[in-house]
Amino acid sequence: MPKFIDIHTHNQTTEENTLKIINAPQVHGSFGQASGLFSLGLHPWYLDKNTFENDFQTLEQSSKNQNIIMIGECGLDRNIDVNFEFQKEVFIRQIQLAEHLQKPVIIHCVRAFPDIISIKKKIQPSVPMIIHGFNNNLQIYQQLIEHQFYISLGSALLNPNSNASKVIKMIPKEKLFLETDDKNCTISSIFALASAYSNAPIEILQEIIINNFNRIFSNQNLET
Length: 224
Ligand SMILES: [Zn+2]
Description:
With 224 residues, this protein is α/β, with parallel strands linked by helices. It has helices at residues 52-62, 84-101, 113-123, 138-146, 163-167, 187-198, 202-216, and strands spanning 4-9, 18-23, 37-40, 68-77, 105-110, 129-131, 150-153, 176-178. Zinc ion binds at residues 8, 10, 23, 73, 181-182. Pfam families: TatD_DNase. A divalent metal cation 2 binds at residues 108, 132.
């Protein structure tokens, strides 16, 4: 088992001792990757009402692939022009797909946490839901934990005064993940910062995240 797990990245290059879940590029045509672990979903930024039904069908087909171990990133974003009700509808369809496939969901959320929470309350999926790139205030953090979300922290840890850097100490260890997302940094550097802010030796942090990874993917036959 590699030491570092990067739960969400857009960077396909291999890193030593690292297992990464690569966010597969937007679905147009079928998913053709042969090796590696991926997440696949319809990101709110690229939603298009005209192509949605087709895109969703492609996603449904492709996400059966065993290399696709999570659905997403998908979610809600209030900073974009895409109709918000449409975003919600698409997000709900993807949670239902994830539930059907029994694969976790990796979530993109901008200024829409109450909506994400109320959708989770309504649908009550059994699959883990991971908020990626969390960097929000304590109140939002508490609501997410109360509703059993997993929290993944990334490049916000580069700023010692960020919400992410402050909140990391509090995150229950069974809910924590780390990521590089689309940033130009290594997962080992994110682990080093996370270790410093949480006062946990890096080896302990590695073990915590490997355990979380193994637990949430225990139903999938991963060759790691
Ligand atoms: Zn991303």
